[in-house]
Design a protein that fits this description.
By secondary structure, the chain is an all-beta fold. It contains 1 helix and 40 strands.
């Protein structure tokens, strides 16, 4: 059983190389990061940002973590302005100690804080880095009447035998997600959740093997939509810690999906938070190879205006021969022979071709008795082309929780060399690539869009084309009735 030693336990040396996808996000290193010290695990707080750092602070006495010869971790607050960030300051002296503090999570109003801290704060300073001084979660409430934060209260499931850390409180305040290496887990550290039962937290529930692996899962963040973001070195990713997300479908967590690069990289990527629309956010990474830093990310999806509904390619035709004589009173009949191997008897027939291409069609008169060709009435050449448009290859109807495959390979655009594909699944999720997979978590009718951008010309200009298609998502049980 692996133990969580201190706040900086997430630096793992398990990296490997995998080919990267085309980048669908822009990232930016925030200006208040330092070169020597760590900044990580940001959380939103009343329009500002609170994060962990081991930077030196001249206001308070700084105690050193002797294993790294760096100051211990504290919570810092930084104001986000319209065009620039303010100067980080210690979040609140009520949480300042000679022990590691953070990461943290706040309730929706910012009046409650849940944070990580070493459990035994009564030891002497020299023992503050004791390897057996596990981590626990503490919470505090802010009162304007009292003029500050209350004395931190320990989480009822803290233990000297294992660590409990990285709290993330749901928006409704009814669920607390966290990480622990308590006995009975699937790996080194697992993600658990406690449900609020009245005024007390219920028993910790392991999120199960779909989320937790034989390795380590860290830094859960539960979004207001119910989507869970977390970091793991056990799920297949790009290397070391990667950021994944999952959602509950019919009471079960679906297979985690890794964030696209450049959010994920071959370095440690962790501690992600994202806005209400799940488009842009912040996360931590050690890709600078000097320290942990906080990065912002935003989607690079272009706007596709005036896109049309996708038309289905119809390769079905009715064939008949003008002026053909009736053969009803004879032993002969007409037979149409298509170069795709199909033969159909009749004066007028219908045939559907599977795909575009050049086809040869023959009309023969055959002997009904022997089946031999009496003579060839006519021979035609037919060229079938797909409609010139962006094309979405996907089913029209799917089930909630079903992994749906989307493919843009049948796109047919002349004099248009495609550089990028952009998918919008109609439920707030987007991605890039010629193919994609997606899981719908609620029944309903969704408009799926696929846009493509051409390679730039010599002047650097690109063209855009796009289409949309309706997909119906059917639920199960009560959900099925809701979608009718």
């Amino acid at each position: 059983m692996k133990k969580i030693k201190h706040i900086g336990f997430f630096i793992l040396l398990l990296g490997f190389f995998l080919p990267l996808k085309a980048q669908d996000y822009s990232i930016s290193q925030l200006p208040f990061n330092t070169d020597k010290y760590d900044e990580f695990a940001p959380v939103y707080f009343r329009g500002d940002l609170v994060f962990c750092s081991n930077r030196k602070n001249s206001i308070f006495l700084t105690f050193l973590d002797e294993r790294e010869d760096l100051p211990l971790y504290d919570l810092y607050r930084v104001e986000e302005g319209r065009n620039e960030w303010g100067k980080p300051e210690v979040f609140d002296k009520a949480f300042k100690s000679n022990f590691n503090v953070g990461p943290a999570s706040f309730n929706s109003t910012g009046s409650e804080i849940y944070f990580t801290r070493n459990i035994n704060i009564n030891k002497k300073i020299g023992n503050s880095i004791d390897r057996h001084n596990n981590l626990g979660i503490y919470f505090s409430k802010f009162s304007r009447y009292r003029g500050g934060w209350s004395q931190p209260t320990p989480f009822k499931y803290n233990s000297p035998d294992y660590s409990v850390a990285h709290p993330s409180l749901s928006e409704d305040g009814q669920s607390l997600y966290f990480v622990s290496d308590m006995e009975g887990g699937y790996g080194g550290t697992d993600i658990y959740v406690c449900k609020l039962e009245g005024s007390n937290w219920g028993q910790p529930q392991n999120l199960g093997p779909q989320i937790n692996t034989e390795e380590n899962e860290f830094f859960p963040f539960i979004h207001s939509s119910g989507r869970l973001y977390f970091s793991s070195d056990g799920h297949e990713g790009l290397g070391r810690l990667d950021i994944f997300y999952s959602e509950k479908i019919n009471g079960e967590w679906h297979k985690p999906i890794g964030m696209d690069p450049p959010v994920n990289s071959r370095y440690n990527d962790f501690g992600l938070i994202i806005d209400a629309f799940q488009k842009s956010g912040l996360y931590s990474s050690d890709r600078s190879r000097m320290s942990d830093d906080i990065y912002s990310f935003a989607p690079l999806y272009p706007m596709f205006e005036n896109i049309n509904k996708m038309q289905e390619n119809d390769h079905c035709y009715v064939f008949y021969e003008e002026g053909a004589q009736s053969l009803d009173s004879t032993t002969f009949e007409y037979q149409w022979v298509f170069s795709d191997g199909t033969k159909i008897n009749g004066e007028e027939v219908e045939h559907c071709f599977e795909s575009e291409g050049d086809y040869t069609i023959e009309l023969n008169v055959i002997d009904e008795i022997t089946g031999d060709v009496y003579f060839n009435q006519a021979t035609y050449q037919l060229t079938i082309e797909n409609i010139e448009q962006v094309y979405i290859n996907a089913p029209d109807t799917v089930m909630v929780g079903q992994e749906v495959k989307f493919d843009g390979r049948q796109t047919n655009l002349k004099d248009f060399e495609i550089a990028r594909y952009y998918w919008d699944f109609g439920d707030g999720r987007k991605t890039g690539g010629i193919e994609a997979t997606h899981i719908y978590t609620a029944p309903g009718s969704y408009i799926v869009q696929l846009g493509v951008v051409s390679k730039p010309d010599r002047q650097g200009n690109s063209e855009k084309q796009g289409v949309y298609k309706n997909i119906v998502v059917i639920g199960q049980g009560k959900d099925r009735r809701r979608s009718d």
